[in-house]
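> Could you send the Zinc finger protein 106-like isoform X2 prediction when you get a chance?

Sure thing. Input:
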Amino acid sequence: MSYRRDSDSRSEWSETEMIKFEMAETESTNTATVMALKANPKRSFEDLQRSDSWSIPFSFGWRREIVYRRTQGSNKRKTPAADVYYFSPSGEKFRSPTEIDKFLKLNRDTKLTTQNFTFKTKKINQWPNEVCCQASKRGRRSSRSQFRTNYNIENINIEKQEFSTEEQQTIGPELDRTSCFPGNYGPVVEVCVASSYLYVAYGNYGVHVYSLDGYKKKAVHKITNQDLQCMVVSELQGLVVIGSGRQLSLCKVTLVNEGPNIHHHDQCCMHTNVQNSTFDMTSTVNCLLLIAPSLVYCGLASGDISVINIVKNKKKEEYKCSDQPIMCLTSPEETSPRLLCALTRDGKVLVISTLTKTVITTLLGHSQSVFNLCVKQRLLYGIAEDSTVIAHKIYSGEKVNDVITNNKLSINCIHYNADFLYTASSDRLIRCYDVKTGKLTHVYYGANRKVISKILVYKNMLITANATGTVDWVAIDHTAENYCQKVGCNFNFGNVWHLFWHETEEHSTPLLTSTKSV
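Output:
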């Protein structure tokens, strides 16, 4: 394959021409490498070693971007001038080895060094972790940024054809895939994290445990259960508590190191004690609430709340709260709770005293029934069937404000983390709201770009699960500026690939544009 262009006409490089140029350059480079190997084998081997070293950051979630400059007039360079940028897994942008060195020292990342990064304009050929694009002209009408990088779908497809089928299956979490967590086992009823492990409860299968260390996630254990209703994990006691029908099971999970490196969870294997403790309940267990260090509150279909001491392995007490089944339990206190918040099947939110075992008040303010709750900083957030989210002060029962109103889309679940409220809607988007300002800041797609049923935030990971059993994650970036340029659509995506999916699936003409400043 050959591609030639007069040097006098290189002043403006189109996207397609740039990709063709890179493909021709790669082919010529391969030929030159063979010749160089015959002339100087030692040097070629060292170059190969450096190339392998430069590929290491990609396995930890780093991205590399080569931006070719737009030149004016005659350009006599054999290759177009370009700038190289690196993006960390959390989305931070780096322009020099000095910036990367400071970042690695600040985060105490001993797995990577500045020797693993190169700011040479030569490609490492690790698409999609490495993207080549052309700097766009500065537009006077753009108030969001002084620089834009345009990604064209046709150009991306050209590069994608350079990889084998096996390579395309391992190129990273941003591309089409079912999940970075292997296996779809039916509807996900709960997700939670303990000791850097993700526990996923599948209603018709059981519990799968995944290691969250490293870029590639690894399944390390499974607990089989054909009729799983709910789950909580006690990190302190090393127990997985499962509600299944009228039975409550306590599964002891221990960590056994296998391999020389005990600092990596990828070298570990998890096992479950075969002698699990079980409790027979008076009715179906609908929900569980773990109160550290030793109590598990069970919401039953009979309207009762049963309390189990998982350290002493015995039932502590059980009392009646409602004539309706208890569907959700939460509390503003992580230890020794004085109050419980219970959601009943008829959509009422009850505030219950754990001392008197009675209902103190019923929270008012929703025009329709509530079906999901989350609590943070003594505020209770509830979703009603009209897709409004209202916050109440738990101790006084006072309505604070309407967090989300006039939402035309149904909301399936919510999650609160670090002053941000995440909601999963029927349009498949996950919206991130700043609770202090009440404004929508970013949107994301969830697992397999389907309607999401569960949301969990762990560190900078947005973990999502859907009703078909797919579980996935994406890095959260509260500083991202990836706006949809379609008229009437002003979503700001926290991930540039999610913007790519949005514009290709929702709009007939893709306009993928990243508005991060250089």
